[in-house]
Amino acid sequence: MTPKIEKGIPLPEGRTRTGTAALCARMEVGDSIFFKGIESANLCSLVQRLKPMKFTVRTVDLGTRIWRIQ
Q1: Which residues sit opposite 55 in a β-bridge?
Q2: How far apart are the C-alpha atoms of 44 and 56, rounded to whole Å?
Q3: CB neighbour class for 28 (10 Å; exposed up to 12, middle 13-18, buried from 19)
Q4: How many C-alpha atoms does 43 have within 13 Å on its Cβ side?
Q5: pTM exceeding the 0.70 threshold for the entire prediction
Q6: CA neighbor of 31 nearest in space, from 69, 62, 59
Q7: CA–CA dist 53, 36 (Å, integer)
Q8: Torsional class of 20: left (φ above 0), alpha (ψ -120 to 50), beta (otherwise)
Q9: Which residue of 23, 40, 41, 61 shows the fewest CB atoms closer than 10 Å?
C-alpha cells in the first residue's frame, strides 16, 4: 500500500510530562531514582528528552537507577 497525502486532519494535542518524566523534571542535582524491572535503554530515551538537565543511567543490582548530574 502506498502512503497518500491527506488534508484537513487535525493535529492531536501535544504530550505533557507525566509520570516518570515529570518526576525526573523535579529532581535536583545529586538526586536519584531507582526503577525495578525497567531496562536502562528505555530510561536513557526518557532522559534525553529532558534537556537542558543532564542525567546518567546505570544498571544496578535488581534494576536501573537515574541520577541527575547537572
Answers
A1: 68
A2: 8
A3: exposed
A4: 24
A5: no
A6: 69
A7: 23
A8: alpha
A9: 61
Please return the burial class of 5, using the count of CB atoms within 10 Å of its CB with bins 0-12, 13-18 and 19+.
exposed
For 1, the grid coordinates are 500500500
The residue assigned the cell 531514582 is 33
Question: What's the rounded Cα separation, in Å, for the pair 51 and 65?
Answer: 18
**What is the maximal distance between C-alpha atoms in the chain?**
51
Kindly state the helix (H) or strand (E) to which residue 35 belongs, with its residue range.
strand 32-35
One-letter amino acid for residue 33 of the chain = I
